[in-house]
Amino acid sequence: MSMELITNIGMLATPQGKGPKKGAEQGAIQILKNAWVVIQDGAIIGVGEGPLPQNFDGIELSTITPIDAEGKLVTPGLVDAHTHLIFGGWRQNELGLKLHGKTYLEIQNAGGGIQSTTNATRKATEEELTQKAKKALDEMMGFGVTTCEAKSGYGLATEHERKALQVIQNLNECHPIDLVATFMGAHLVPAEYKTNRAEYIRLVCEEMMPVVKEQGIAKFCDVFCEADTFTVEESRQVLEAGLKYGLRPKIHADEIEAIGGSVLAGEIGAISAEHLIVCPPEGIESLAKGGVVACLLPATSFYLGAGFAPARDMVNAGVPVAMASDFNPGSCPCLNLQFVINLGCLKYKLTPEEVLTAVTLNAAAAIDLADRVGSVEPGKQADLVIWDAPDLDYICYRMGSNLVQTVIKKGVVVR
Ligand code: NIG
Ligand code: FE
């Protein structure tokens, strides 16, 4: 039996519960001052405020060498619920095009964008992709992330989609960060199927999905429902096929144009809908009705120079709001969730309390892990961050510095 103890916590800030928080509940977090946390075998067994008891549940606490939080802020480990972690190459060449006024879809339609990353990903070996993604995961962990979703979607051919999912599995086995895999064969119709879209969708649904199910790594199926990418009907077809193979639906919706993706998300009962930058009122209504988590990606809005999702309207409508990085080589070459936290306050005008829930418990709910991570409570996995910060406001307000002091994963100090 291994025991750990965190003492001298100036402020412990955490949402509570095993499911997503919506409406006023999103900001109703627990704040404890002068707090302590008891951990047994990687799980939290006790959380308290005030003087440390001598004895907790029959355990003599003075026999444990504590981790001293030095009066600082402690939160749950951050959950990055949306990343395109597995890709070959980068796309810094697109920056110049962007600065000369080319739009994201113009670059994509000219063979740049997802297609160019697909070419690089197909060329890369499983080992090369593993090493590259491992480096990114190390960096994420340094910014306070302890759980991360990762999508395939730059293979766009059965063997390469399978390879990307295998890389996620490899990393999950060797890296402290817990990874959850999403199959995203419907990220783009690749060049070789441009004149035969229906055949590519058939390939995704009838050839890739059985292989993905057999491989047993992916939990979710995602689709890029967007103008010039996949229509609402094509997206519905892909997500319904995914359901037959036990993959829960996720959807990139309303990122650039509102073509109906968020409405579909609610209709189909997606676990989450992503981006939602231009989500219309009927989309918000559908998300609320369908119990869909809105997974917002403000660093992508920032990088694209686009608007910001109507986060406040979503909270008001009773949609649980999560926030994630969208780390990818095109629309968001940024994996820093602390920047996402800043943008959540400054651009979405969410409160620090709402933002904390968005990057912990609601993010965990977006990947079906809210029963295990996303809050500091007895019964949850002991994933925590000690911040070089006195309180929650401070990490929302300071920009551009890494404020993480210590990252604890399953009770072990990993950074
Ligand atoms: O979430 N929107 C689709 N997929 C990514 C971008 C992928 C890329 O540009 O490589 C996103 O923004
Ligand atoms: Fe994305």
CATH class of the largest domain: Alpha Beta
Structural class: alpha/beta
Radius of gyration: 21 Å
CATH topology of the largest domain: TIM Barrel
Question: How does this model look, in words?
Answer:
This protein has 415 residues and is of the alpha/beta class. The chain folds into 2 domains: 113 residues, Urease, subunit C, domain 1 (Roll), CATH 2.30.40.10; 289 residues, TIM Barrel (Alpha-Beta Barrel), CATH 3.20.20.140. The protein is built from 15 helices and 18 strands. Strands 1, 2, 3, 6, 7, 16, 17 and 18 form an 8-stranded mixed sheet that branches. An 8-stranded parallel sheet has the order 8-9-10-11-12-13-14-15. It is globular, with a radius of gyration of 21 Å. The structure holds N-(iminomethyl)-L-glutamic acid (NIG) and fe (iii) ion. N-(iminomethyl)-L-glutamic acid binds next to helix 3.
Summarize the topology.
Elements: E1 3-14, E2 30-40, E3 43-49, E4 55-56, E5 59-60, E6 67-68, E7 73-76, E8 78-80, H1 93-99, H2 104-109, H3 113-123, H4 126-142, E9 145-151, H5 158-174, E10 178-186, H6 197-215, E11 218-223, H7 232-244, E12 248-253, H8 261-268, E13 272-275, H9 281-290, E14 293-296, H10 298-304, H11 311-316, E15 321-323, H12 337-346, H13 352-358, H14 361-366, E16 384-387, H15 392-397, E17 404-409, E18 412-413
Parallel strand pairs: 1-6, 1-7, 8-9, 9-10, 10-11, 11-12, 12-13, 13-14, 14-15
Antiparallel strand pairs: 1-2, 2-3, 4-5, 7-16, 16-17, 17-18
Helix pairs in contact: 4-5, 5-6, 6-7, 8-9
The protein binds N-(iminomethyl)-L-glutamic acid and fe (iii) ion (FE).
N-(iminomethyl)-L-glutamic acid binds next to helix 3.
